[in-house]
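Example (one chain per record):
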Amino acid sequence: MAITTIIFDLGGVLIDWNPDYVFNGLFEGQDEKKAHFFENICTPNWNEEQDAGRSIAEGTQLLLDKHPEWEEYIKAFYGRWEEMLGGPIPGTVEIFRQLKETGRYKFYALTNWSAELFPTALRLYDFLHWFDGRVVSGEEKMRKPSPAFYQLLLDRYSVKAAEAVFIDDNLRNIKAAEAMGIKSIHFESPDQLREALKVLDIDLS
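Predicted structure:
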Protein backbone atom coordinates (compact mmCIF):
# COMPACT_ATOMS: atom_id res chain seq x y z
CA MET A 1 0.00 0.00 0.00
CA ALA A 2 1.35 3.43 -0.94
CA ILE A 3 2.58 5.75 1.80
CA THR A 4 0.33 8.77 2.32
CA THR A 5 1.45 9.90 5.76
CA ILE A 6 4.84 10.61 7.32
CA ILE A 7 5.15 10.79 11.11
CA PHE A 8 8.23 12.41 12.61
CA ASP A 9 9.71 12.20 16.05
CA LEU A 10 11.27 15.57 16.94
CA GLY A 11 14.18 15.36 19.39
CA GLY A 12 17.14 13.63 17.79
CA VAL A 13 15.51 13.66 14.35
CA LEU A 14 14.56 17.26 13.52
CA ILE A 15 15.87 18.99 16.64
CA ASP A 16 19.25 18.50 18.28
CA TRP A 17 18.64 18.16 22.03
CA ASN A 18 21.45 17.01 24.29
CA PRO A 19 22.00 17.62 28.02
CA ASP A 20 25.74 17.43 27.37
CA TYR A 21 25.59 20.99 26.05
CA VAL A 22 25.05 22.06 29.67
CA PHE A 23 26.50 19.29 31.77
CA ASN A 24 29.84 18.88 30.00
CA GLY A 25 30.66 22.29 31.41
CA LEU A 26 29.19 21.64 34.85
CA PHE A 27 31.07 18.35 35.14
CA GLU A 28 34.21 19.39 33.28
CA GLY A 29 36.91 16.80 33.88
CA GLN A 30 34.55 14.70 36.04
CA ASP A 31 33.25 12.09 33.62
CA GLU A 32 32.52 9.50 36.32
CA LYS A 33 30.54 12.01 38.37
CA LYS A 34 28.52 13.00 35.31
CA ALA A 35 27.83 9.36 34.46
CA HIS A 36 26.67 8.72 38.02
CA PHE A 37 24.36 11.73 37.88
CA PHE A 38 22.57 10.59 34.72
CA GLU A 39 22.50 6.93 35.68
CA ASN A 40 21.20 7.44 39.23
CA ILE A 41 19.65 10.89 39.65
CA CYS A 42 18.42 12.72 36.53
CA THR A 43 17.78 9.44 34.76
CA PRO A 44 16.03 8.99 31.41
CA ASN A 45 13.07 7.42 33.23
CA TRP A 46 12.77 10.44 35.52
CA ASN A 47 12.86 12.82 32.56
CA GLU A 48 10.22 10.80 30.72
CA GLU A 49 7.81 11.23 33.62
CA GLN A 50 7.82 14.96 32.89
CA ASP A 51 7.36 14.10 29.20
CA ALA A 52 4.34 12.05 30.27
CA GLY A 53 2.68 14.94 32.10
CA ARG A 54 4.26 15.26 35.55
CA SER A 55 5.04 18.91 36.24
CA ILE A 56 8.63 20.11 36.11
CA ALA A 57 8.25 21.56 39.61
CA GLU A 58 7.10 18.22 41.01
CA GLY A 59 9.78 16.22 39.21
CA THR A 60 12.51 18.59 40.33
CA GLN A 61 11.36 18.67 43.94
CA LEU A 62 11.20 14.88 44.01
CA LEU A 63 14.92 14.71 43.26
CA LEU A 64 15.84 17.59 45.56
CA ASP A 65 14.16 15.78 48.45
CA LYS A 66 16.08 12.57 47.70
CA HIS A 67 19.42 14.08 46.69
CA PRO A 68 19.85 17.54 48.26
CA GLU A 69 23.61 17.37 47.78
CA TRP A 70 23.06 17.47 44.00
CA GLU A 71 20.88 20.58 44.09
CA GLU A 72 22.93 22.68 41.65
CA TYR A 73 22.87 19.97 39.01
CA ILE A 74 19.24 18.94 39.51
CA LYS A 75 18.06 22.54 39.17
CA ALA A 76 20.21 23.00 36.05
CA PHE A 77 18.40 20.24 34.19
CA TYR A 78 15.28 22.30 33.60
CA GLY A 79 16.62 25.67 34.67
CA ARG A 80 19.03 25.62 31.73
CA TRP A 81 16.93 23.38 29.48
CA GLU A 82 16.90 25.79 26.54
CA GLU A 83 20.71 25.65 26.45
CA MET A 84 20.40 21.93 25.75
CA LEU A 85 18.81 22.72 22.39
CA GLY A 86 21.48 22.64 19.72
CA GLY A 87 19.12 23.88 17.03
CA PRO A 88 17.55 22.22 14.01
CA ILE A 89 19.19 19.21 12.38
CA PRO A 90 19.54 20.93 8.98
CA GLY A 91 19.68 17.85 6.78
CA THR A 92 16.47 16.43 8.20
CA VAL A 93 14.66 19.75 8.08
CA GLU A 94 15.63 19.98 4.40
CA ILE A 95 14.21 16.49 3.77
CA PHE A 96 10.99 17.58 5.50
CA ARG A 97 10.84 20.72 3.34
CA GLN A 98 11.34 18.75 0.13
CA LEU A 99 8.70 16.20 1.09
CA LYS A 100 6.29 18.97 2.04
CA GLU A 101 6.78 20.67 -1.33
CA THR A 102 5.78 17.53 -3.23
CA GLY A 103 2.22 17.98 -1.94
CA ARG A 104 1.81 14.22 -1.79
CA TYR A 105 1.85 13.52 1.93
CA LYS A 106 0.33 14.45 5.26
CA PHE A 107 2.79 15.14 8.08
CA TYR A 108 2.41 14.61 11.80
CA ALA A 109 4.70 14.93 14.80
CA LEU A 110 4.61 12.29 17.55
CA THR A 111 6.88 13.45 20.34
CA ASN A 112 7.78 12.74 23.93
CA TRP A 113 8.04 16.31 25.22
CA SER A 114 7.01 18.17 28.35
CA ALA A 115 3.87 20.23 27.82
CA GLU A 116 5.51 23.07 29.75
CA LEU A 117 8.51 23.17 27.43
CA PHE A 118 6.94 22.49 24.05
CA PRO A 119 5.83 26.14 23.55
CA THR A 120 9.53 27.07 23.63
CA ALA A 121 10.18 24.73 20.71
CA LEU A 122 7.22 26.17 18.80
CA ARG A 123 8.65 29.64 19.30
CA LEU A 124 12.14 28.70 18.21
CA TYR A 125 11.51 26.43 15.22
CA ASP A 126 9.27 27.53 12.36
CA PHE A 127 9.25 24.08 10.77
CA LEU A 128 7.20 22.75 13.68
CA HIS A 129 4.32 24.70 12.15
CA TRP A 130 4.60 22.78 8.87
CA PHE A 131 2.86 19.73 10.35
CA ASP A 132 -0.76 18.90 9.67
CA GLY A 133 -1.02 17.91 13.32
CA ARG A 134 1.07 17.24 16.42
CA VAL A 135 0.65 14.83 19.33
CA VAL A 136 2.73 15.85 22.35
CA SER A 137 3.11 13.38 25.20
CA GLY A 138 3.01 15.93 28.00
CA GLU A 139 -0.30 17.28 26.75
CA GLU A 140 -1.83 13.81 26.41
CA LYS A 141 -0.43 12.34 29.67
CA MET A 142 0.98 9.34 27.79
CA ARG A 143 4.13 8.75 25.79
CA LYS A 144 6.02 6.48 23.42
CA PRO A 145 6.36 3.52 23.39
CA SER A 146 2.80 3.09 24.73
CA PRO A 147 0.63 1.66 21.93
CA ALA A 148 -2.19 3.95 23.05
CA PHE A 149 -0.08 6.99 22.23
CA TYR A 150 0.43 5.87 18.62
CA GLN A 151 -3.22 4.90 18.35
CA LEU A 152 -4.23 8.37 19.52
CA LEU A 153 -2.49 9.91 16.51
CA LEU A 154 -3.98 7.38 14.11
CA ASP A 155 -7.48 7.97 15.43
CA ARG A 156 -7.30 11.75 15.82
CA TYR A 157 -6.10 12.34 12.27
CA SER A 158 -7.75 9.35 10.56
CA VAL A 159 -4.40 7.84 9.59
CA LYS A 160 -4.25 4.26 8.34
CA ALA A 161 -1.28 2.45 9.89
CA ALA A 162 -0.53 0.61 6.65
CA GLU A 163 -0.22 3.93 4.76
CA ALA A 164 2.11 5.60 7.26
CA VAL A 165 5.83 5.66 7.91
CA PHE A 166 7.25 6.63 11.29
CA ILE A 167 10.74 8.13 11.79
CA ASP A 168 12.38 8.03 15.24
CA ASP A 169 15.93 7.81 16.60
CA ASN A 170 14.91 5.52 19.49
CA LEU A 171 14.80 1.84 18.54
CA ARG A 172 12.36 1.11 21.38
CA ASN A 173 9.87 3.50 19.80
CA ILE A 174 10.45 2.06 16.34
CA LYS A 175 9.67 -1.46 17.51
CA ALA A 176 6.45 -0.28 19.15
CA ALA A 177 5.30 1.38 15.93
CA GLU A 178 6.15 -1.65 13.84
CA ALA A 179 4.15 -3.85 16.22
CA MET A 180 1.14 -1.71 15.29
CA GLY A 181 1.69 -2.20 11.57
CA ILE A 182 3.36 1.16 10.94
CA LYS A 183 6.39 1.02 8.65
CA SER A 184 9.27 2.66 10.48
CA ILE A 185 12.73 4.10 9.91
CA HIS A 186 15.26 4.04 12.72
CA PHE A 187 16.86 7.45 12.20
CA GLU A 188 20.66 7.63 12.29
CA SER A 189 21.49 10.57 10.01
CA PRO A 190 19.88 12.69 7.29
CA ASP A 191 21.77 10.82 4.57
CA GLN A 192 20.65 7.47 5.95
CA LEU A 193 17.07 8.77 6.12
CA ARG A 194 17.14 9.80 2.45
CA GLU A 195 18.22 6.30 1.46
CA ALA A 196 15.62 4.65 3.69
CA LEU A 197 12.85 6.80 2.17
CA LYS A 198 13.96 5.76 -1.33
CA VAL A 199 13.64 2.11 -0.33
CA LEU A 200 10.02 2.84 0.56
CA ASP A 201 9.47 4.57 -2.81
CA ILE A 202 9.05 7.94 -1.13
CA ASP A 203 10.29 10.47 -3.67
CA LEU A 204 11.60 13.83 -2.47
CA SER A 205 11.24 15.49 -5.86
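Caption: The chain has two domains: 5-16+86-199, 18-85.
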